[in-house]
Write a structure and sequence with these properties.
Strands 2, 3, 4, 7, 8, 9, 10, 11, 13 and 15 form a ten-stranded mixed beta sheet that branches. This protein has helices spanning 9-21, 69-75, 199-208, 232-237, 310-313, 327-331, 354-357, 387-395; strands at 62-67, 96-114, 130-132, 136-139, 147-148, 154-161, 176-182, 190-191, 212-220, 241-248, 252-255, 284-290, 325-326, 399-401, 408-409. The chain is globular. It has one domain. The chain has eight helices and 15 strands. The longest helix has 13 residues, at 9-21. Strand 5 and strand 6 (154-161) form a beta hairpin. With 424 residues, it is an alpha+beta fold.
Length: 424
């Protein structure tokens, strides 16, 4: 059974059980002692997770950190036509570069279950033995750069488990399935690294029931005269700078994540590498990692798709050059939103100018005659009826473990059933 925001009913039951456990022997409870919510509808002003990169490096403990990686924190999503072997997951193909101002995410219902690889199904778990309910709100764009873990990415500390909820030590011979949820914003919440200036944005998330909020700036840096292509005049009329924000609810359960840091792991989708195994010699890290690129994919389900901003910029007003535009206001309409088949603002189908802007890129739009078409990959139209819902469908899978470790994401598989974004 699945609730309307994409969480399994059993997730809610685990959450309720974990809450009750705090007065019934659960030594971990909802938060660490020095990172707790403030009273009322306010954000706490400090959060001490109780550990740093250096100390305490307690044997048998599991330290949970968070990171937006280099792309979300530092470099952004760029465009460089000199790259001859482009990484489609890190660079826009249509001439745009993007920097972020904030990437707010609400996290909670963290849990560890023994026997991460016991079942062939990634979504099948044993009962949780360690929980941390939360919720926590983090800015993935600006974690304290006091921790470097998976893939050398800058990260911030979130909380640590020294023992199971019962107080018993973790078994260092066991791999524990690591699972967590993204949640709709609410109070009370433990603020990990938001500043007082971000209180208004978090309040907006609470009011609208969002789980995430992006703020950023996209700038066209391609050469518009790089070659001849249809509708060049229409492209030239589009804003060359688009400041934007976008809040949405894609609350989901991320289950039994693959851990690329495990010995012998072959990649983020290696199911044999599931789980976090405590060490008898020191702490191990479980890094909650956000991949910012998913919002801009042009194909569902399959990871690492070409990133596009032309179909968004086509609807942006000229004022977006200086004043952030809410993407909902330009991509969502009373009649259901912009078509998943990308168009200019006058309804003309948009051609793919990616190969012109980036000669090393071979268009993935040949089946459409060279026009940009967002590929649902079999996901029913009812789940992604328009462009903005299409975008949010992919963000459910942007949360990972230790850089690239894929989790079973509820709502991304036809038997769940598929997630239907709640955009309003």
């Amino acid at each position: 059974m699945q609730s309307s925001n994409g969480l399994f009913l059993w997730s809610a039951l685990v959450l309720a059980a974990a809450c009750g456990g705090s007065s019934n022997g659960n030594v971990n409870a909802g938060y660490d002692p020095n990172c707790k919510p403030a009273s009322g509808n306010t954000l706490n002003t400090s959060c001490n997770p109780g550990f740093t990169q250096q100390a305490p490096n307690k044997a048998g403990s599991i330290q949970v950190t968070f990171s937006g990686e280099q792309l979300g924190e530092l470099t952004g999503l760029t465009f460089d036509p000199s790259v001859t072997n482009p990484n489609l997951a890190t660079q826009f193909v249509d001439g745009w570069s993007m920097q972020f101002d904030e990437l707010l995410v609400v996290l909670g219902n963290f849990r560890l279950s023994p026997g991460a690889t016991q079942y062939s199904s990634q979504s099948t778990l044993n009962a949780a033995v360690a929980t941390k309910v939360g919720p926590y709100v983090v800015d993935m764009h600006n974690p304290p750069h006091d921790f470097t873990a998976a893939a050398g990415e800058p990260a911030g500390a979130l909380f640590k488990w020294n023992t199971q909820d019962s107080g018993q030590a973790f078994d260092t011979s066991v791999r524990y399935a690591f699972s967590y949820d993204t949640l709709q914003a609410k109070y009370p919440v433990a603020n990990v690294n938001l500043t007082s200036a971000q209180q208004a944005d978090y309040d907006m998330m609470v009011t609208n029931g969002w789980s995430k909020l992006y703020r950023g700036t996209a700038t066209f840096v391609g050469n518009p005269n790089a070659g001849t292509y249809p509708n060049k005049a229409k492209f030239d009329l589009m804003p060359q700078t688009v400041k934007f924000f976008f809040g949405f609810n894609d609350a989901a359960s991320l289950i039994n994540c693959v851990n690329p840091s495990n010995s012998g792991a072959t990649g983020g989708d290696d199911l044999a590498a599931r789980g976090v195994q405590p060490s008898p010699t020191g702490a191990v890290t479980a890094q909650v990692t956000m991949h910012v690129d998913h919002l801009f994919w042009d194909r569902l389900i399959i990871h690492g798709q070409p990133l596009r901003f032309d179909p968004i910029a086509a609807w942006a007003p000229a004022s977006a050059a200086t004043t952030a535009v809410d993407l909902r206001s330009i991509l969502l309409t009373p009649t259901g939103g912009r078509s998943v088949a990308a168009t200019f603002s006058d309804g003309t189908p948009m051609n793919d100018r990616g190969p012109i802007m980036w000669p090393a890129f071979t268009t993935d739009m040949t089946a459409s005659g060279g026009n940009v078409v967002y590929d649902r990959q079999g996901v029913p139209t009812v789940n992604v009826p328009d462009l903005i819902n299409f975008m949010v469908f992919s963000t459910q899978t942007q949360m990972h473990l230790n850089a690239d470790g894929l989790c079973y994401t509820v709502g991304q598989h036809p038997n769940d059933p598929y997630f239907t974004p709640n955009i309003h």
